[in-house]
Amino acid sequence: MCGFACLAWAMFPHDTGMKEEYALEKAKEALTKFLQENHLRKTPERYAVLERIWRSEGHFNAESLYRDMQGEYRVSRATVYNTLELLLQSHLVVKHQFGQQEAQYEKVATDKVHHHLVCTGCGKVKEFSDKHIRTTIQARRFAYFEPGYYTLCIYGLCSKCKQKRRKQ
Ligand SMILES: [Zn+2]
Ligand SMILES: [Zn+2]
């Protein structure tokens, strides 16, 4: 298990830069641009998936996204999975692989940069923010590279798992 497995970077289109807010409208524009450039159809279902993700908070997996969309939209499982793949390719969504568990996704939102504490015992993921990390990364210059989104994963044991191990 590599601690850097989910140090995810995604580039933003140049005109948006590291703006504080990457709102739904911006995301839709970016998706439109991506679909056009790749000669893919701009189906309402694809935008519905994007919208659902933008209106939700935190992490999700492909199956939970599909379940969440039932009732509200008529989108097939294949469309949800396929659109998620397109959103990954267009860097609107990032994929995390926290240890052994199923891949988790989340939208790219620069206004809410956060990091992850991943328990290697039970797989629980806790989010945290840190002003110092943020300041450090923002001040850092990278040669021939413009940073966009980033996230840090710290692997360890949650208090419950730590207690369990102590009793053993
Ligand atoms: Zn997260
Ligand atoms: Zn745990």
Protein architecture, described:
- With 168 residues, the chain is α+β, with helices and mostly antiparallel strands.
- It has a single domain (24-167), classed as Arc Repressor Mutant, subunit A (Orthogonal Bundle), CATH 1.10.10.
- Helices cover 39% and strands 12% of the residues.
- The protein has helices at residues 24-37, 44-55, 62-69, 77-89, 131-139, 159-167; strands at residues 93-96, 104-107, 115-119, 125-128, 153-156.
- A 3-stranded mixed β-sheet has the order 4-3-5, with no helix packed on it. Strands 1-2 form a two-stranded antiparallel ribbon.
- Strand 1 (93-96) and strand 2 (104-107) form a beta hairpin.
- The radius of gyration is 18 Å and the shape is flat.
- It starts with 23 loop residues before the first helix and ends with a helix.
- Residues 59, 106, 114, 116, 127 line the site of one zinc ion (ZN).
